[in-house]
Amino acid sequence: MSGVRVLDLSRLLPGPFCAMILADLGADVIKVESTLLGDPMRAVPPQIGTDSWYFLSINRNKKGIALDLKAEEAKEILRKLIKICDAFVENFRPGAMSRLGFGPEEVLRLNPKIVYASISGFGHSGPYMERPAYDMVAQGMSGIMSITGEEERPPVRVGTSIGDIIAGHQAAIGILAALLWRERSGQGQHVDCAMLDGLVYILENAVVRYTISAEVPHALGTAHPSITPFQAFRTKDGYIITPIGNDALWLKFCRALGLEELANDPKFKTNSKRTKHRGELAQLLERALMGKTYQEWSQIFDEWGLPYAPINSVDKMVADSQVNQREMIVEFEHPIAGEVKMVGCPIKLSQTPPQMRMPPPVLGQHTEEILKDLLGYSSEEVKELRRRKVIV
Amino acid sequence: MSGVRVLDLSRLLPGPFCAMILADLGADVIKVESTLLGDPMRAVPPQIGTDSWYFLSINRNKKGIALDLKAEEAKEILRKLIKICDAFVENFRPGAMSRLGFGPEEVLRLNPKIVYASISGFGHSGPYMERPAYDMVAQGMSGIMSITGEEERPPVRVGTSIGDIIAGHQAAIGILAALLWRERSGQGQHVDCAMLDGLVYILENAVVRYTISAEVPHALGTAHPSITPFQAFRTKDGYIITPIGNDALWLKFCRALGLEELANDPKFKTNSKRTKHRGELAQLLERALMGKTYQEWSQIFDEWGLPYAPINSVDKMVADSQVNQREMIVEFEHPIAGEVKMVGCPIKLSQTPPQMRMPPPVLGQHTEEILKDLLGYSSEEVKELRRRKVIV
Asked: How many C-beta atoms surround the C-beta of residue B272 within 10 A?
């Protein structure tokens, strides 16, 4: 994606995540921030120097410019940038960008070839359009929380801001699809992604299950609604996940556990029968699995060629050899924070591999470079704009 | 994406999800299945006729061809299709496609312009490359389960197969980025996405939090690790989510709850102080919120302009006016299942909007059409291939 230039006016999580995906794949992303405090995510504690750990996690590979968009000269800079960019990302509440003069219509008028992506809680249409929304609003309303957690226990959230992050992925897909279409049509367009829509899309089969059967899906702990045993069990010293996805694996699994009698029990013969008798089966299996440690079971499962996994805490994952060999933990030298380890990019392209080119910018780090190199401002002009606090 | 032709050899969840995203955006997707039973997802109960609800959920907008790839004539058909397609999707264990003669090298040799996307549990490199993997393996190993659930309670999974689904999204991004690069270079490439990598990427700030502080993130129920109160509380008759994302909202929130004294309490003045005293604060807030019903609070929060949300079950979400007005619930007439409601596409493009064109195919539904219209086979040839069970 080198040669694709993205203007990123977003802040907090979903837009910055979307722009990070594009940046990781080689796009030239220009992050536009306010001159006062910049992206509010910089201030979400804990911080190192002026920047939060949160901000550092999702803004690498971007260049940063800080503009006071209340000033006409700053708006002029933004208009000039719009004319030379291929995509535009924002995640304000619908209407806010238009009030600033940079809604989809205005921006597409300035540059009819630009792809303008909006990410919001509810999208740019519908009765809730202007309601305030955050990740947790989308998690709650989408139904994903109703199927996550233990049965008959209080609700839990998905432990990562999945509403923000899935919408960020979907907006990246929308931008790329629109850029591809632009290759043939020569036209830009508006990409409108909503966190609520995004989470509804990933409910897997829950909607069809409900609309066909009228049964309302509910939370099942670690269990899968239609595959059994596909869950976590206790061992002598920790949990083991046993994703037994078909009947052939089931027979092997019974033998590996020394439970030949279960293999022959008609009650558990097929996946649908096992799913029906899920509770009873779980007790029988856990009783057997409690007899050995995770380590002992892992050797037995390896011998039988059975799938299994531990439940890693984040420290274990960060130390994992596969994760590291896949370059999923990368390191940056940050001008203020020093050495920071963060996640790598998971989209591995053979000819245009993702690259970690730059640490997250400090506020206004590339303002001068962008004004001079891309827009042709002189040193004098930059100095004057800085003196008048139009830029940082 | 009309005019982009995708050959989809994947089955179960991650590859079919990836191909559905592309199909929803207008790509012509040809789903290649085995003649015997087709995509094993068709058989995961419960079923309607020959197809499962699960299969129906993730295969609309695709055409289906069924080939017995053990037969040389079927391989020849596949080779012909490879030569006229833009992208190729598979999610077998690394090495399996090469043994069949259709690994990335072979396919790129047949068509150097094709984008070949692989989705697997661990990716096409690293020490675990050939290990069996399922969604739950990636969920367990990535750390996402360790930060999802209640504190000090048994683990839970994310209630949807997020490992499969996130890798499906990332592969779609990889394919589109590669197609865009192909516009300039004329070259195809291999896109290698792993479920484990994909989930590590979406841990938000958990990795930086751990690598900087050495504190291991853990599950927090509905609470956010660094924003408070950003969680669900009980009311008199159900839960309410209160995503109070900044200090200004906090003051309004205290007043709306009639808890002026909290607004003035220095212990809770800033987000970081509230996060530090999260447990104590939650008790105080829940005591107040238990005094009224969800409905009563929603009116009060509306008056104050405060964000809030219910925790919807799937039936409530399916009936929601916003979800429906955004066309996130769509209906198909399926040849066997009859009328089926499922989720719509969340990536709303203004010029090339997503379209629901076709219900999920029954096994081999478009075999004849594809052989004749795309590859120029005669009716006689098709009949003969069918007689010899090379195709269904």
From this structure: 16
Same domain assignment for residues B265 and B334: no
pLDDT tens-digit map of A309-363 = 999 999 999 999 999 999 999 999 988 888 999 999 999 999 999 999 999 999 9
Domain end: B312, B344, B374, which one? B312
* A163 shares its domain with A32: yes
pLDDT of residue A337: 85
CB contact, 8 Å: B299 with chain A?
Answer: no
Q: Respond yes or no on whether ipTM tops 0.95.
A: yes
Q: Indicate the pTM of the whole model.
A: 0.98
Catalytic residue, chosen from A164, A192, A320, A373, is A164
Structurally, chain B folds into a number of domains equal to: 2
Q: Is A152 on the interface with B (CB under 8 A)?
A: no
Question: Which residue is catalytic, options B28, B164, B192, B197?
Answer: B164
8 Å CB contact between A132 and A121: yes
A197 part of the active site: no
Are residues B348 and B297 both part of a single domain? no
Q: Are B357 and B27 in contact (CB under 8 A)?
A: no
pLDDT band at B317 (very low <50, low <70, confident <90, very high): very high
Range of B264's domain? 230-312
The mean of the pLDDT values for chain A is 96
Does B50 score more than 90 pLDDT? no
Task: Tell me which chain A residues have a C-beta less than 8 angstroms from the C-beta of B192.
Answer: 348-350
Is residue A342 domain-resident? yes
* B275 and B351 together in one domain: no
B243 inside 8 A of chain A by CB: yes
Identify the CATH number of the domain in which residue A293 sits.
Answer: 3.30.1540.10
* pLDDT score for B2: 83
Q: Of A312, A328, A346, which one is at a domain's C-terminal end?
A: A312
Helix (H) or strand (E) holding B338: strand B338-343
Please check whether residues A348 and A277 belong to one and the same domain: no
> Residue B204 is nearest to which of A161, A230, A310, comparing CB atoms?
A161
Residue B52, classified by CB atoms within 10 Å of its CB into exposed (0-12), middle (13-18) or buried (19+), is: buried
Q: How many CB pairs under 8 A join A and B?
A: 510
Give yes or no for B107 touching A (CB within 8 A).
no
**Which whole-number Å values give the CA distances from B17 to A148, A204, A221, B103, B195, in the listed order?**
20, 9, 24, 21, 13
Quick one: pLDDT at residue B49? 85
% of chain A exceeding 90 in pLDDT? 94
